[in-house]
Design a protein that fits this description.
This protein has about 240 residues and is α+β, with helices and mostly antiparallel strands. The chain has a single domain, classed as 4-Layer Sandwich (Deoxyribonuclease I, Chain A). The chain has five helices and twelve strands. A six-stranded mixed sheet has the order 3-4-2-1-12-11. A six-stranded mixed sheet has the order 5-6-7-8-10-9. The longest helix has 15 residues. The termini are close together.
């Protein structure tokens, strides 16, 4: 069965000196040599995802394709989602899911002849908006429909025991749980105990290994305020 490595990372835009963080992110990702990378908080005006793809190509020698999904409304100028892939995109889609222009992103790639849906999202972050996150989770799940196989990455801004994750679990499984790997925390990167970032798999997709990345400071600087996640999945 064909396999690929998927990474999910909240990039934090250009905050905290992107010029300093960029080579740290690129080096950490290149060490994994991932096939697909799902980014949240990618600065659109800065073409940040394309810059990262260029940095990765220089380190790995691989060619990367970039699919961007801007936020809705005026937020589109500043930020959005992005998927970087070594596989060409056969289809792309974008869904506005709530306030602050939040969106979900869907692409289709072909892995050794097998079509795979890769989706990406970033849910409402405010602590008192649990109902809104739950509604967004249901919108994303409904939008993806019965796509099979599918991998969904994202900063879901809710814990594993939340109603938001329960809604996703009606359709998806945690790649890390599939692989028997525990995640102690993802944000903020320098504190454990708060997991809000996930790689979820659905249908016939199976995670065979998983872990974290970009999970330590380098020269006193963190690559992002979120720890990255990776999973090796079998299609």
């Amino acid at each position: 069965m064909p396999e690929l490595t998927v990474v999910s990372l909240n990039l934090r835009g250009i905050h905290d000196c992107w010029r300093r963080r960029a080579p740290l992110v690129a080096a950490g990702l290149a060490a994994l040599n991932p096939d697909v990378i799902c980014l949240q908080e990618a600065a659109t005006w800065r073409l940040q995802a394309r810059e990262l793809a260029w940095r990765l190509a220089r380190r790995t020698g691989r060619r990367y394709h970039v699919a961007q999904a801007r936020k809705g409304g005026y937020h589109s100028v500043f930020e959005g989602l992005a998927i970087i892939s070594v596989f060409p995109f056969e289809a792309r889609g974008r869904l506005v899911i709530g306030e602050q222009g939040r969106v979900a992103q869907r692409t289709v790639v072909r892995v050794d002849g097998v079509p795979l849906t890769v989706a990406n999202t970033h849910l409402e972050h405010r602590g008192d908006r649990a109902e809104e996150r739950l509604a967004q989770a249901r919108r994303v799940t409904s939008w993806l429909g019965d796509s099979d196989p599918v991998v969904l990455c994202g900063d879901l801004n809710d814990r594993p025991e939340s109603a938001t994750l329960a809604a996703f679990r009606e359709r998806f499984r945690s790649a890390h749980e599939d692989a028997g790997v525990a995640v102690s925390g993802t944000a903020p990167a320098w504190e454990s105990g708060r997991v809000i970032d996930y790689i979820l798999v659905g249908g016939g997709l199976q995670a065979v290994d998983a872990g974290t990345c970009l999970d330590a400071p380098v020269g006193g600087a963190w690559p992002s305020d979120h720890i990255g996640l990776w999973a090796r999945v079998s299609v």
